[in-house]
Specification:
CATH topology: Arc Repressor Mutant, subunit A
Radius of gyration: 12 Å
Helix content: 40-55%
Strand content: under 5%
Shape: globular
Largest sheet: none
Number of helices: 5
Length: 103
């Protein structure tokens, strides 16, 4: 599969994204996608569809909380699934642009 990534590993063309591509991007980050990961990916993709940008951490936590409940809408939960910078990592795996205010 030939997909074009930028210097940070984000898709250059958002239309190249598929579940297969997500699995490859996750593998590059040493993450094996579970149903819990896919729930978050669905939330961030819906957020992007509605607001036309990838959420930083706080809006991501809020979106997850609204969609999946307060237990999952916590930064600690997201850090376990997507270690390091969850907002950046889940955006990358979901085939979305890097959140604007993430370094």
């Amino acid at each position: 599969m030939n997909i074009e990534l930028d210097d940070e590993g984000y898709l250059r063309n958002l239309n190249d994204w598929s579940e297969e591509v997500a699995a490859l991007l996750a593998e590059q980050e040493n993450i094996e996608l579970t149903p819990a990961h896919w729930e978050i990916i669905e939330v961030i993709r819906e957020f992007y569809t509605n607001f036309e940008h990838s959420p930083a951490m706080r809006p991501l936590v809020k979106a997850v909380s609204i969609k999946l409940g307060k237990d999952k809408g916590k930064s600690i939960y997201l850090m376990k699934l997507f270690p390091g910078s969850p907002a950046k990592l889940v955006a990358k795996i979901a085939g979305l642009p890097k959140p604007d205010n993430c370094l």
